[in-house]
Each structure stands twice: as C-alpha cells, then as structure tokens.
Amino acid sequence: MEAVVEADDVRKTYGETIALSGASLSVESGEVFGLIGPNGAGKTTLVRALTGTTDPDDGTVRVLGESPTTVDRHRLGVLPQAFSPPDRLSARELLAYYAGLYDEARDPDAVLADVGLADAGDTWYENLSGGQKRRVCVGATLINDPDVCFLDEPTTGIDPAGRRTIWELIEDLAAGGTTVVLTTHDMAEAERLADRVGLLADGSLVAQGTPGALVREHGGSSRLTVETSADPSALEDLAFPVDACDGALVVRDVDPAEIGAVVDVLDDRGVAYTGLTWAEPDLEDVYLALADDAERARTDRIGTAAGLAKAGETA
Ligand SMILES: Nc1ncnc2c1ncn2[C@@H]1O[C@H](COP(=O)(O)OP(=O)(O)OP(=O)(O)O)[C@@H](O)[C@H]1O
C-alpha cells in the first residue's frame, strides 16, 4: 500500500517548550488514522506540520508524496481545532463561499445534509449552536471532496446524535477511499473509526497499531467492579488481584464464567454491594496505561536533569 501521509522524526519547539520530540507515522491510502494523547502532547502541532501550517525544526513530512507546502491543496481537507469563519454568513452561504475557492466542489446543500444541518442552511453562523458550528466547519472541510482529510477534534462540542452523524460521514469517506487523519480525546470515537491509532505522549508516538492490537498489548486485564464501601482486605485471599478505586473494589482477571464464584465469596463474607459491572479492557485502558508511563518517564527525566544541574552547581 502507498503511504499518503508520512512524518519522519519530526521535531518542533516553541521557545522552551518541546511540542514534538521526534514524531513518526505513516498512513496508507484509504486508512483512517486516529491520533490520541493527553492535552499538550503535540497532536495539533503534528497535524499543523503535516498540513504545512507550521514548519518543523527537523524531520520530514510528506503528503501525497510531496511537501505539504507544494502539494495540490485541492486534494486536501483540513479542519483545524480552532476555525472561525465569518459570523454573518448563513451556513449555506459559508459552504458556497468555501466551494467557490475550488475549481470543482460539492453542492453546499448536499454537504449540509451530510453533516445533519439540512434545516439550518439559512441560519447565520453566529446564531448556530456550538455543535452546529462545528458541523458546518466539518462541512467546509469536505466541500472540495478531498482525497486526504485532516480533522483536528472533529466532534468536540457536538451532541451524541450529531457525533454519530459525523462518525457515519467519516465512515462513508473511508469507504469511498479517502485517507483520514483525525485527532480525538474520545476513545469510543477512535476505537470505532480508526483502522490504526497512534498514541502521542510528550511529543512522540509511543504506540501505534489497530485498536484491537493495542488493547491486547497494553489494555491489561478484565475488571469486575463491585460497588461497595468494604475494604480490599474483605477479599484479600481471593484468587484474583483486588484494588480499591473510587468507592468500589476492582477485581481483575475474572472470566465471565468466574463471576458467580466471586459473588458467592461476597455473599459468604457478608460484603454488602450496590452494583456489579464486568468490563473487558478497551482503548481507554490503553490510553491511561501508556499516558501514565509517559508521564512517569517525563517526570524521571526532569528529576534527573534537575539532579545533574544541582550536582554541576555544587561541583
Ligand atoms: N504556537 C505556539 N506557541 C507556543 N507554544 C505552543 C504553540 N502551539 C503549541 N504550543 C505548545 O506545544 C505543546 C503541544 O501543543 P499541541 O497543541 O500540539 O498539543 P495537543 O496534543 O494538540 O493538545 P490538546 O489535546 O490540548 O489540543 C503544548 O505545550 C503547547 O502549549
């Protein structure tokens, strides 16, 4: 398969801040790639480097085999995280305006229908709700029927039904062969849409893979959550690891067939509980585990650097 979006060892600093510390990824034609990671991890900076709106200090970026600054912009769709179109145009006028920037563009009304705003075409942008505004912005990104789409947090602020509309739209784009790079804080969104997910932490991609592979590798074990005020010692000699967490006991590694045995132990020991939930690990567990590891590594690095500086001062 042909790589359509590539970043190789991309570095970017803003003053003292290291936004990207060697980020590399490769997205194939027709793939949906989801970038996840904590606030400040560098997702937007990477998207900006890939779309030519910021110059990396080092490393290379290629889109459709070219530099983002020379690639045919008609083939790209870019939804920035912050997008402020003119306020006093209606949703339809706005899309018509963006359509006018291209030699060939889609019908604004068809795009409005795609983003679930068929009834809001005459409303001024400033009078749309936050979620409706975001949907218009998604529409503006798709007006030129791009081959490659960069969507920086496309569904932020959109209600659950609207989010599903956008998800279906992205699935249709992917089914039609469009390559999509999206950033998100919504793990359900990443798990549903992305063929592959990359976790960016502290400026570099610390893990990449299909959601399933990431969950198998980093997601940990299943969890049986027992809503109870009891202390973990109530279950201390159980055959499974038990942790206390937010007013509950979390019993790990329990197969569905073993839940009954745990319930019997709870009843035998008179442990009162108000609810039981069993869950397999998911992408959120991967995110929490890897982001935690990256944060620990960062803190260690800062501690080591501070120690070395202090040693230098006293030497
Ligand atoms: N134009 C800029 N000037 C100075 N610092 C910047 C600039 N853009 C980004 N940064 C810094 O670079 C780091 C990475 O920011 P970036 O916006 O790429 O993160 P992000 O992963 O997209 O975060 P979020 O999830 O909050 O959107 C942050 O520390 C941020 O403060």
UniProtKB/TrEMBL annotation:
Which residue range or ranges hold the ABC transporter domain?
Answer: 5-227
The protein's superkingdom reads: Archaea
Which keywords appear in this protein's UniProt record, sorted alphabetically? ATP-binding, Nucleotide-binding, Transport
Query: Which InterPro entries does the entry link to?
Result: AAA+_ATPase, ABC_transporter-like_ATP-bd, ABC_transporter-like_CS, ABC_transporter_ATP-binding, P-loop_NTPase
Q: What Pfam families does the annotation carry?
A: ABC_tran
Asked if the keyword Nucleotide-binding belongs to this entry, the reply reads yes
- Would I find Zinc among this entry's keywords? no
PROSITE patterns, per database record = ABC_TRANSPORTER_1, ABC_TRANSPORTER_2
Q: Which CDD domains does the protein's record reference? A: ABC_DR_subfamily_A
Any one GO MF term held by the record is: ATP binding
To which protein family does this belong? Belongs to the ABC transporter superfamily.
Q: What is this protein called?
A: ABC transporter ATP-binding protein
- Lineage in the entry? Archaea, Methanobacteriati, Methanobacteriota, Stenosarchaea group, Halobacteria
